[in-house]
Every structure is written in structure tokens, then in C-alpha cells.
Amino acid sequence: MSSLSHGYRNLTIAIVFLFPIYPLLVTEGWVGRMIELFLGLAILTSPIFVIKGRNHSFKTMSLPIIIIILLVIGAVKPELSWLVMIKEFLLMVFLLEVIRVIARHVFTTKRVSTADSLYGAVCIYLLTGVFFAHTYFLINLIAPNSYGCSTSLCAGHLDSAFQNGVDIYYSFVTLTTMGYGDVVPLSPFAGMIAVLEAIIGQMYVAIVVARLVGLYLLEAEQKETRS
């Protein structure tokens, strides 16, 4: 883990930092969205550069470049709704790649000698929530009225609310099984995706994170015994 000294910790802080400023950026129009997307993609690309090396990273960077181009075209021609769908799909593919790279780096080790490995596991958890947020957004684009909102959180317009961060809010409420009930699935498919996210969220914390914490405590205890 020496190649990523404090890298996962910094990545975790950066992702958490993006959450509160996300609604502020997206309300500033397409310029704010460009800033939000550029920051997000830059942050998420950093672990790929470190882990996979520059040659592989430049191949992976083609996805963020295409996503940014599609966002610009979509801002100029907002009537092309299919561009938004493609952008969301590519974002989901990119998030899966980042999760795969971090997971392969974190979970293949049998020893957890630094807390940064635990931060890596937290990164995967947070990115899983973001991935499902884009999934919900894409589902609602393809099949409108797949979700309902019963509070002023959506201001009566769920489609625009999803674009302003409510999709991320709903995703993490589902991932953590808080279940406020203000945003709910209205179609069987949307409901099953929500159930899948809730199961993944519970199993991940109960099994994966618990295992890493156990390995970390065991490693710390062995170090103390040897000293």
C-alpha cells in the first residue's frame, strides 16, 4: 500500500466534500455542472493513475473525456435527451471501473497494516452509492414516473430534483436502509434495484468492512506483540 500512502483517505475526504457542494454547483446551470463533473472525474481518476500506471490510465481517461464532450453538446442542444442517457451510462461504466480498480487493490491483500486500506473500503462504499444514484437517474430518464416524491424536497418536479442531487440523497438513504419514504419507487423494476442496493449496502458493511477491520486490528496486535 506504499504507493497509495494516505491516498484513499484523501479520496474519501474529497468525495465527502463533493456531496454538500454538489447541489450548489448544479443550480448554477451547465457551467456549474461542468465544474462539478470535472472535479468529480479528476478525483475519481486519481487512484487509477496511481494503481494501474499511466499507460492504462490514459486508456481509461478516454471515458471522462467523452463524458465531458457529451455534457457540452447536451448543454448546447438540450433537446437531445438521448445524449444525457449515453452520458449517464458512460458515467456508470466509469464508476464501475474505479470501484473495480480500488477493490482489486484493497481486497487482494491478506494483511491490512495501515488504516488507508480501510479508507479504500469506505471509498468503494461511497462510490457504490454514487453509482446507484446514476442508475436511478437513468431509469427515470428511460421510464419517466418510475419514482415518486411526497415532500417539498422535490418541489413537485422529481425530474429536475434528480438532476439537483435528490438522486444521490435517495441512493444513500436506500444504501444505508434509513428509508425515510419521501422518495419511493413506483415501478417493479425501480423497486428491485432499490432492494438490490439495500442488500449490497448491508452485506458490504457486515462482511467486507468488518473483515478489513478485523485484519487491521490483528495486524496492530501482532505488531504490539513483536515490539
3D structure, described in words:
This protein is an all-alpha fold. The protein has 8 helices and 2 strands. The chain is globular, with a radius of gyration of 19 Å. The mean pLDDT is 79. It has helices at residues 7-26, 29-52, 54-60, 62-76, 81-107, 116-142, 158-175, 188-226, and strands at 147-149, 183-185. It has a two-stranded antiparallel ribbon. It has one domain. It starts with 6 loop residues before the first helix and ends with a helix. The longest helix has 39 residues, at 188-226.
- Shape type: globular
Give the uncertain stretches in residue-range form: none
Gyration radius, in Å: 19 Å
Strand content: under 5%
Strand order of the largest sheet: 1-2
Count of beta strands:
2
State the separation between the terminal residues, measured CA to CA: 22 Å
Total number of helices: 8
State the share of residues found in helices, binned by percent.
over 70%
User: SSE string, helix = H, strand = E?
Assistant: HHHHHHEHEH
How many structurally independent domains? 1
For the biggest sheet, the summary is:
2 strands, antiparallel
Average pLDDT over all residues: 79
Q: Structural class of the secondary elements?
A: mainly alpha
Short overview:
The protein is mainly α. It has 8 helices and 2 strands.
